[in-house]
């Protein structure tokens, strides 16, 4: 039980949904301190009662008046709801952690994975009275970057190998392409964004939870399989499951309801000379680390 008078007041927007329910589980599992929680959803759910941590709550309909006195608002009711009500919450002084795609491409909104770029939050202070928006990256992106970042820190992933100015140009090209504009090509000789042809068949597979991703990484500096395995074994929030003898690798079931991102099938990319490429198989619960857990880790950093 983490109900405390001196703790921040919370709102959960979309509390009846898959991510909203997971917010409550993660708050409870991590004993996140709160003084009150507003349980918000649509008109359809307003008035329904439920118990959370021994206290009865009544779901309220989300409205423009919902955020008075709310310190931290956790949003997971879809992008259109976030676009409409996120700025309203900020005007009330709430810090919004948003799980939708609404603000991910907004350059003024920090896009944060606590294990990857915690520094992006340094200017946001709880209790300052000033509201702010913080975006959770897409669930597939979070899961992939949890594995890729520790390896990047050692051997530099090739996309950033061309330096900071090139990374900025890649970001600029991404915005321009999404806005339908001609991309700037000063450092890259041609459009580098969305310029890979991929042919794929995407299907929903019958598992209840978790995303599985086959990831190919190319590096500026050599990185062999064993070193990568050691780096990943020591990375926060990552667990290595890579036992070729007994055929134990990451699976959706093994990571369901778990916090960690599991990495396995770590092998050299034999299509490249030397140790400049790695293939990985990454699996994680997208409702947990891909959504609710990541958002609550962000909120924890504000405490
Ligand atoms: N599921 C995932 O794996 C996942 C992962 C990462 C991010 N996300 C993002 O999280 C968000 C929610 O996803 P979800 O899977 O949790 O969806 P969901 O299970 O369908 O839940 C949607 C929630 O939004 C509420 N809602 C819908 N219309 C509303 C309105 N007009 N006003 C207030 N509340 C409203 C619903 O309330 P009612 O019950 O009252 O309709 C429900 O609580 C989406 O933006 C999604 O992209 C999802």
TrEMBL record:
InterPro entries: NAD(P)-bd_dom_sf (IPR036291), Semialdehyde_DH_NAD-bd (IPR000534), Semialdhyde_DH_dimer_dom (IPR012280). Coiled coil: none annotated. The active site is at 139 (acyl-thioester intermediate), 211 (proton acceptor). GO terms for molecular function: NAD binding; oxidoreductase activity, acting on the aldehyde or oxo group of donors, NAD or NADP as acceptor; protein dimerization activity. GO terms for biological process: alpha-amino acid biosynthetic process. CDD domains: VcASADH2_like_N (cd02316). Residues 9-124 form the Semialdehyde dehydrogenase NAD-binding domain. It holds the Pfam family Semialdhyde_dh. Belongs to the aspartate-semialdehyde dehydrogenase family. This is Semialdehyde dehydrogenase NAD-binding domain-containing protein. It comes from Escallonia herrerae.
């Amino acid at each position: 039980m983490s109900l405390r008078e001196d703790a921040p007041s919370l709102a959960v927007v979309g509390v009846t949904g898959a991510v909203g329910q997971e917010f409550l589980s993660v708050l409870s599992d991590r004993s996140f301190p709160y003084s009150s929680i507003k349980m918000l959803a649509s008109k359809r759910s307003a008035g329904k009662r439920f118990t959370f941590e021994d206290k009865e709550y009544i779901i309220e309909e989300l409205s423009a008046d919902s955020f008075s006195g709310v310190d931290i608002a956790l949003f997971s009711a879809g992008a259109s709801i976030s676009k409409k009500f996120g700025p309203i919450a900020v005007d009330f002084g709430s810090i919004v952690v948003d799980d939708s795609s609404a603000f991910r491409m907004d350059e003024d909104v920090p896009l944060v994975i606590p294990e990857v770029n915690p520094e992006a939050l340094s200017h946001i202070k709880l209790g300052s009275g000033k509201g702010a928006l913080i975006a959770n990256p897409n669930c597939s992106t979070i899961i992939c970057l949890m594995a890729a970042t520790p390896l990047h820190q050692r051997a530099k992933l090739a996309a950033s190998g061309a330096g900071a100015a090139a990374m900025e140009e890649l970001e600029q090209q991404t915005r321009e392409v999404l806005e339908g504009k001609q991309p700037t090509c000063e450092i890259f000789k041609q459009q580098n964004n969305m310029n890979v042809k991929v042919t794929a068949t995407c299907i929903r597979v019958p598992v209840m939870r978790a995303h599985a991703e086959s990831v190919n990484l190319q590096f500026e500096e050599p990185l062999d399989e064993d070193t990568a395995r050691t780096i990943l074994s020591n990375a926060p929030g990552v667990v290595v499951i890579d036992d070729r003898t007994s055929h134990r690798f990451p699976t959706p079931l093994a990571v369901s309801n778990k916090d960690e991102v599991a990495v396995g099938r770590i092998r050299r990319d034999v299509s490249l000379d030397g140790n400049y490429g790695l293939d990985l198989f990454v699996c994680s619960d997208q409702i947990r680390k891909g959504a609710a857990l990541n958002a609550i880790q962000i909120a924890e950093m504000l405490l």
